[in-house]
Amino acid sequence: MMRRFLLSVGGGARDYVESIGLSFRTLFVMLGLSPGLLRRPRLLVEQLHVIGNYSLLIIILSGLFVGMVLGLQGYYTLNKYGASESLGLLVALGLTRELGPVITALLFAGRAGTSLTAEIGLMKAGEQLSAMEMMAVNPIQRVLAPRFWAGVISVPLLTGMFSAVGILGGYLIGVGLIGVDEGAFWSQMQGGVDVWKDVFNGFVKSVVFGVAITFIALYQGYEAQPTPEDVSGATTRTVVISSLMIWWLDFMLTALMFSK
Amino acid sequence: MSNLVEIRDLHFSYGKRAILSGLHMDFPRGKVVAVMGGSGSGKTTVLRLVGGQIRPQKGAVSVEGQVVHKLKTKDLYLLRRKMGMLFQHGALFTDLTVYENVAFPLREHTDLPEELIRDLVLMKLHSVGLRNAAKLKPGEISGGMARRVALARSIALDPQLIMYDEPFAGLDPISMGVTANLIRNLNDALGSTTILVSHDVKESFMIADYVYFLSQGKIVAHGTPADMMVSTDPYVKQFVHAEADGPVPFHYPGKSLAEDLGLGARK
């Protein structure tokens, strides 16, 4: 009984380590094959359009509403301390440092990550990846690499859009609806937001999230068994693993960046 | 005549389940060789081993004198440029049109101008009777038509070795005959070598120069189609003449129906 339990735990641990190793090997192979994209930038542009452009609407709408809610909640709290003029600063800092990168990443995992996993998984189930291999075309280079870089480029750009629209949302509520002084709203923001400490660190977070989500999504699809159940399971795993990874990375990066 | 593909003492298994055991096969240049057998006999596995998609546990597959599973990735991809493979369900890229699918290998491996690619693609599509379907997406054509497009794509680079995995499955009788003749004609016109995996006796015998029969991962008979037609080997006889009784069991091996229904205890 005990022996069986130990064997089961040992086997599970070995499988886990093996899967981590395989995923990193795939990542390094993909990175090694990526310079090939320079010869065929069209593949990257196509994927930027599919992955980035098609995610734009949900990002803009979400950013607007998050900014509006932040404006309302921020005013409610700041007003208690007579600091409602700092609303612009609160909205901007909240969005650039934290909410922009994290919510964009979560939305991207749900919108584009699932789509990537399902697409690659179904290509595998339909033997399209095998056919590509038999045509002497490496699917990691031809299919995975352009999607990976498109994701890595898209997430920071979408994060920028999210934060910018969010600030506008905060402005609409704070200045337009509640009546916070417009000059104070913008000047507090201008004076309090540091380009390197706040905006750049937020950008770094979004790049890290972009790498993590896109690779998780691609790898889950690429390693999925070619069955409907497993492709569906892989899509779910993409959302679950990506979301947890985003929170964990966010905590680690925040601790590193803002601990001083 | 030299062999383009040679298989020697080939063993392959998935985990503990043996799929192929001690195969020896030769595929001479310029010939159409059929690999036949019932479902689960290991026919498709042979193709995947020849293409280097899986590695054998023992033995070797040589293509042009190169042992496939010992090749580095780069060399394997170079070798695959000389191969064409038709997958059982076509495996067309569903986001591309019929035209783009056939143009895919040409665009990936050549620097030909677009006008020349267009002419080549239309010629290949014409040879499978689907030139006028060039603008359609795979979702807009039937399964049989998709297989013919996949055939055009597999010969786009005029490969030395063409492998067909069940090319006749699901085709109507007219398409079946046309496809069989096409496989033979392509082989002769391109001077290539063909490995034809199928369980359709009539069409395969019509075009094959040599036939291997597989059963449970072993070669049970081989020879020319004429030899096979008059063979007295029980397996070949049952398969060729589609007989219900013979060495090939219909039921998957295991307990008897009586045992499963609990009737054995009444003895």
Description:
The complex is a heterodimer of chains A (260) and B (267). Chain A is mainly α and 260 residues long. Chain A has one domain (40-258). Chain A has helices spanning 2-33, 41-52, 56-80, 87-125, 128-134, 139-178, 182-192, 195-223, 228-258. In chain A, helix 6 packs across helix 8. The model of chain A has no long low-confidence stretch (mean pLDDT 93). Chain B is built from ten helices and ten strands. In chain B, strand 4 and strand 5 form a beta hairpin. Chain B has one domain (29-58, 73-244): P-loop containing nucleotide triphosphate hydrolases (Rossmann fold, 3-Layer(aba) Sandwich), CATH 3.40.50.300. With 267 residues, chain B is α/β, with parallel strands linked by helices. The A-B interface holds A 123, 126-128, 130-131, 133-138, 142 and B 51, 53, 73, 77-78, 80-81, 83-85, 87-89, 91-94, 104-105, 108-109, 150, 153.
Helix-strand topology string of chain B: EEEHEEHEHHHEHEHEEHHH
Strand content of chain A: under 5%
Please state roughly what percent of the residues of chain B sit in beta strands, choosing from under 5%, 5-15%, 15-25%, 25-35%, 35-45% or over 45%.
15-25%
**In total, how many beta strands of chain B?**
10
CATH class of chain B reads: Alpha Beta
Q: Assign the CATH superfamily of chain B.
A: P-loop containing nucleotide triphosphate hydrolases
Number of domains of chain A: 1
Number of helices of chain B: 10
Shape of chain A: elongated
Q: Which structural category do the helix and sheet elements of chain B fall into?
A: alpha/beta
Radius of gyration of chain A: 22 Å
Do you know the CATH topology of chain B?
Answer: Rossmann fold
**Count of spatially separate domains of chain B:** 1
